[in-house]
Amino acid sequence: MKAVVNYSSGAGNVEIRDVPIPSNLGPHDVLINVKGAGVCGSDLHMYHDIQGFPVIRPVTLGHEYSGVITAVGSEVILFKEGDHVVSETPAYVCEKCIYCRSGQYNLCPHRKGFGVLVDGAMAEYVKTREAIVHKIPDNVSFEKAALTEPSCVAYNAVAHHSRIRPGDYVVVIGPGPIGLMCTQIAKLFNPGRLTVIGTRKDLSRLEVAKQFGADEVIVAEDGDVVEKILSYGDGFGPDLVLDAVGVSATLKQSVDVVRPAGQITKIGWGPAPIGFSLDPLIQKAARLQGSFSHNYPMWEKVLVMMEKGEINPLPMAKTYLIDEWKLAFDEMDSLAHAKSIILPNP
Ligand SMILES: [Zn+2]
Ligand SMILES: [Zn+2]
After folding, report:
1. CA atoms of 219 and 300, how far apart (whole Å)
2. Which residues are close to ligand 1, an ion, with C-beta < 5 A?
3. Left if phi > 0, otherwise alpha if psi is -120 to 50, otherwise beta: which for 279?
4. How many domains does the chain fold into?
5. Which of 3, 82, 85, 328 has the most Cβ atoms closer than 10 angstroms to its Cβ?
6. Could you give the percent of the chain with pLDDT greater than 70?
């Protein structure tokens, strides 16, 4: 079968390879014929070999996917051949640590993600585990369902890890796929004002932010961002800042603007040291909260909201055939649109 394989370290070392269809299904495994595979920022980081996490190579990329079940292991009871499904991202968790036992398996120290440490979904087939598969509602397309994963990342950050109430002033930094989905989900809480910050390069993605419910977008190069944010309302700043970028400069901005007793939720990663004092955070008695990945109940909720049309990531996306993987990567990289989806079996 065709697969988009990151075959060695070094920039640009990705190609289409002919690899075997996954076989030897374990008793709890499920084989999926992949219908949609989203390209994630982390796939692009691996493509450029600038990822900040351990990887194995060669590895088939992709961890955001939907498809049709074509085979199930001998002890699978919840699914059968022909079911339309999505799967979560942890190809392996230990099932023994306190986080696995309490349903917070996204925090399992032994977690291995698809497309990073286990072959992923930018291929005609992928093998996954019954425990992390979900049925897709009838009215949700495979393309839309393939973006359940980034929607759940945003859901976890906004609905689970943030304190957010109707009327709140909410600022999202970074209109990438996660920032855009944070915008859409924050909108469900009926904020008093929802502001999204990007750069000149983000102009097309900032348009999507407006479509996703932003009251205002700020282009960082067009004046003092901190001043603009603090000019709204009583001048004390946003109740909640969602930092979906990951560089130190945006965390500094977040600390500078967050309302006393407010919250910063940080979703963006960056291996560099932050390089500034966190004293203002302490003086403001504000909260700095990390958010990572998602778990089973969040997927079920996001799928319900997709069925009702309350969550719809598709306006930020463009689809490509698997042979066009390079175009899919490069166009997303150039910020032409926020999200590329590869269709391995159109
Ligand atoms: Zn992702
Ligand atoms: Zn574990």
Report:
1. 35
2. 40
3. alpha
4. 2
5. 3
6. 100
CA–CA separation, 346 vs 319, rounded Å?
10
Whether residues 75 and 126 share a domain: the answer is yes
**Residue 251 lies in domain:** 162-290
Is residue 89 situated within a structural domain?
yes
Residue 341: strand, helix, or coil: strand
The total of other beta-carbon atoms located within 10 Å of residue 141's CB is 14
Render pLDDT for 23-49 as a digit per residue (tens, 0 to 9).
999 999 999 999 999 999 999 999 999
Extract the tokens encoding 316. Answer: 């930020």
Q: Cα separation of 313 and 150, whole Å?
A: 9
The CA–CA distances, whole Å, from 329 to 69, 144, 342 equal 27, 18, 10
Say yes or no: 115 and 180 in one domain.
no
Are residues 209 and 188 part of one domain?
yes
Distance CA 293, CA 234 (A): 34
C-alpha 91: how far from chain center = 16
| Rounded distance from Cα 285 to ligand 2 centre (Å) | 33
288: enclosing H helix or E strand: strand 287-290
CATH for 265:
3.40.50.720
Whether the predicted pLDDT of 269 surpasses 90 = no
> Averaged over 127-145, what is the pLDDT?
98
| Closest ligand, as measured to the CA of 88 | 1
Please state, in angstroms and rounded to a whole number, the distance separating the CA atoms of residues 288 and 295: 21
> What pLDDT shows up at residue 52?
82
Return the structure tokens found at 197.
Answer: 């910050």
**Residue 290 to residue 156: CA distance in whole angstroms:** 10
In a shared domain, residues 136 and 92 = yes
Task: Report how far ligand 2's centroid is from the alpha carbon of 169 (Å).
Answer: 37
Q: Which two tokens mark 169? A: 């002033």
Tokens of 137: 């509602």
Q: Is residue 7 part of a domain?
A: yes
Q: How far is the CA of 156 from the centre of ligand 1 (A)?
A: 13
